[in-house]
Amino acid sequence: MTQSPSPLDTRPKHLKGPRLSLALFRIGWSERQAAEKCDMHRTQLRRCLEGTSALPSDLSGWLLDLEAAHLAHPCPRQRRADPILAEIRKAG
């Protein structure tokens, strides 16, 4: 019996570049906040954001879990008609 992959199996193992930027945006963290929360030097995180390096799998999984939680539980006062947010929702 072949099972279809779970959503966790299809997630990137190592976040980097635009996908990492999107996750941090959705969580609401700046580069500095993310570096502090991940206990990383800002230069190391910046390299991941530029795509020349990637986050370790444990941090990648944790950030993806945080992103999913933020998407599943948006602020009840979030603006629904914001065109920028509409584009982000389409892309995500």
Strand content: under 5%
Helical content stands at 55-70%
Number of E strands: 0
Succession of helices and strands:
HHHHH
Residue runs with pLDDT of under 50 for 5 or more positions? none
Task: List the domain count as a whole number.
Answer: 1
Instruction: Please report the number of helical segments.
Output: 5
Calculate the terminal CA-CA distance, rounded to whole Å: 31 Å
Largest sheet: none
Gyration radius (Cα, Å) is 14 Å
What is the residue-mean pLDDT, rounded to a whole number? 85
> What characteristic shape results from the CA principal axes?
globular
Counting helices, strands and paired strands, the structural category is: mainly alpha
Task: Give structural notes.
The protein has one domain (17-91). It is globular. It contains five helices and no strands. The chain is mainly α. The chain has helices at residues 17-27, 31-37, 42-50, 57-72, 83-91. The model has no long low-confidence stretch (mean pLDDT 85).
Characteristics:
92 residues; single chain; 0% strand
Structural topology:
Elements: H1 17-27, H2 31-37, H3 42-50, H4 57-72, H5 83-91
Helix pairs in contact: 1-3, 1-4, 2-3
Summarize the structure.
With 92 residues, the chain is mainly α.
